[in-house]
């Protein structure tokens, strides 16, 4: 059984589980249309948003091609005589103003493609001899796009199917979400919610304060001190090799010690079947296949340097599964990999890939490709954010948080502390997600809440008289013996609490009750944080709404 707090989605992994299509899809694999309608929607706060669509054109020998500004005409950059040549055509596809109807473009068949979205200005793509394309870089300080807010998603559209995924492997910045309509129904990937980047940054700073790691150094701010993007640890280490030095080594030492006397069993999910290995003389050896020396922290985060550089397909398969287990820190608890029956067990070691943990906790559906082998999974249990179909009919990509009703709540824009504050109208959060609410009035509630999670609400006005009471509409289906605190804090999720109440099972996750609590007198305007602490790791709280009172 999958735990209630789980990561669900779909992915495609090299040499992993085979792609399973319905009979209808198998019959349609060679019948995808020559072009696919793609809606590009803008829900950011900016009226200046551009998209760039590029990939390898199979009709022209897999040479690079861009869609031009009209959103339908392909442009093939010629090979220049020297590196760094201008692109030579206007390929900035202007999106409509924020909140307006989407712009529809016509996507031709392209492989290894990307769709970039930039906020507030255009991106610069340069052409090298070949031709090759110099993509925008977030790790090169001299890159012309370094101060621009942008993100990208990845896709391949060929004669057999459309595949697209949201990638955080390099960095996270502007939210992107998917809705793919197919003949079998609609697939969605919700991406970051409103305020998601700020939530990620706050959680990284909290993690750095907790364990002394370099997590806060992944945050990049603009000249005004606003969060611009967060670099992945593997990308950041590539620019500064001193980051995270020795961070995972104590865990890696424990893993290598354990498997001196225990078999590590890896299911290749391919024709090689299951293979077993042990550590001897410091080397993890799979007899008849190959061996791995103990990796460094940097190697675990990048998944591509020694010992994960391998010379044959079977070793490449083992590399992916070993690297995934080390990033998720599941090897001390489970000698059978890939471990995916209980994704709540991922990232539970004190020192783990907290970048991946925080991203999976922050995205509204817990999906997102957070490290290079995040597509490793058992059959039927997926983690990275992708859509895939042999029968696509309309692909909608939203830049900015997805519209209300899709699972991503809009920010409340402040408000009175004495009104009803809907829990799903947070401006920042960590570790939670929303769901349909069965309480009176319907709507959505916030659930999947466990120890260490929090919700933030900016601009809450308590006035001059001040509030001394707090009431919250809560529910819990927690197991016997599982309980925790709901605490109110001001202006930081780590500030001292001004009040709290305890919560245990109320009869079910949709069995609602209103709980009052006294708080220290609060005046003025604050960001209100609801924080959740428990001695157990399981979920214990759902929250529908809350409010404050003077008496």
UniProtKB/TrEMBL annotation:
Residue ranges crossing the lipid bilayer per the database entry: none
InterPro entries named among the record's database cross-references: CBM6, Cellulose-bd_IV, Galactose-bd-like_sf, Glyco_hydro_64, Glyco_hydro_64_fam, Glyco_hydro_64_N_2, Osmotin/thaumatin-like_sf
Statement: the UniProt record of this protein carries the keyword tRNA processing: no
Residues of the signal peptide: 1-16
Gene3D superfamilies: Beta-1,3-glucanase, C-terminal domain, Galactose-binding domain-like, Thaumatin
Domain CBM6: 419-549
Any one Pfam family match given in the protein's UniProt record, by short name: Glyco_hydro_64
Protein's UniProt name: Beta-1,3-glucanase family protein
């Amino acid at each position: 059984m999958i735990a209630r707090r789980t990561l669900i989605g779909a992915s495609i992994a090299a040499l992993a589980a085979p792609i399973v299509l319905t009979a209808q899809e198998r019959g349609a694999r060679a019948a995808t249309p020559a072009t696919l309608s793609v809606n590009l929607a803008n829900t950011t706060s900016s009226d200046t948003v551009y998209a760039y669509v590029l990939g390898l054109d199979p009709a022209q020998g897999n040479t690079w091609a861009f869609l031009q500004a009209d959103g339908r005409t392909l442009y093939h950059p010629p090979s220049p005589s020297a590196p760094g040549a201008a692109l030579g055509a206007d390929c900035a596809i202007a999106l409509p103003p924020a909140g307006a109807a989407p712009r529809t473009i016509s996507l031709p068949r392209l492989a290894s493609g990307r769709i970039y979205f930039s906020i507030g200005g255009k991106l610069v793509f340069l052409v090298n001899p070949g031709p090759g394309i110099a993509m925008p870089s977030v790790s090169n300080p001299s890159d012309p796009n370094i101060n621009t807010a942008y993100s990208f998603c990845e896709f391949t559209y060929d004669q057999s199917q459309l595949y697209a995924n949201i990638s955080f492997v390099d960095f996270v910045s502007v939210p992107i979400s998917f809705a793919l309509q197919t003949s079998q129904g609609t697939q969605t990937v919700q991406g970051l919610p409103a305020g998601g980047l700020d939530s990620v940054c706050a959680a990284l700073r909290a993690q750095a304060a907790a364990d002394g790691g370099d997590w806060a150094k992944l945050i990049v701010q603009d000249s005004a001190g606003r969060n611009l993007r967060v670099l992945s640890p593997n990308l950041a280490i590539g620019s500064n090799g001193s980051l995270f030095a020795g961070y995972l080594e104590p865990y890696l030492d424990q893993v290598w010690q354990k498997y001196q006397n225990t078999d590590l069993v890896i299911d290749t999910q391919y024709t090689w079947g299951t293979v077993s290995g042990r550590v001897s003389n410091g080397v993890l050896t799979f007899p008849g296949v190959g061996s791995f020396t103990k990796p460094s922290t940097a190697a675990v985060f990048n998944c591509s340097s020694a010992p994960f550089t391998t010379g044959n397909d079977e070793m490449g398969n083992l590399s992916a599964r070993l690297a995934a287990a080390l990033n998720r820190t599941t090897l001390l608890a489970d000698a059978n990999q890939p471990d995916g029956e209980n994704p709540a067990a991922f990232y539970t070691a004190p020192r783990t890939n907290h970048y991946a943990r925080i991203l999976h906790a922050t995205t509204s559906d817990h999906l997102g490709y957070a490290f290079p082998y995040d597509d490793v999974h058992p059959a039927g249990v997926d983690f990275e954010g992708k859509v895939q179909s042999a029968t696509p009919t309309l692909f909608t990509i939203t830049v900015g948080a997805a519209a209300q009703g899709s699972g991503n709540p809009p920010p409340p824009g402040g408000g009175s502390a004495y009104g009803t504050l809907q829990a799903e109208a947070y401006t920042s959060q960590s570790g939670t997600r929303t769901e349909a609410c069965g309480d009176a009035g319907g709507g959505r509630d916030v659930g999947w809440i466990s120890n260490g999670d929090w919700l933030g609400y900016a601009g809450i006005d308590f006035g001059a008289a001040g509030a001394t009471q707090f009431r919250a509409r809560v529910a819990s289906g927690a197991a016997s013996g599982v309980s925790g605190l709901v605490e109110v804090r001001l202006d930081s999720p780590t500030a001292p609490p001004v009040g709290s109440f305890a919560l245990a099972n109320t009869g079910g996750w949709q069995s609602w009750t209103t709980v009052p609590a006294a708080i220290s007198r609060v005046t003025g305007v604050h960001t209100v944080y609801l924080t959740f602490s428990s001695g157990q790791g399981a979920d214990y709280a759902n929250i529908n709404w809350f409010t404050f009172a003077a008496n």
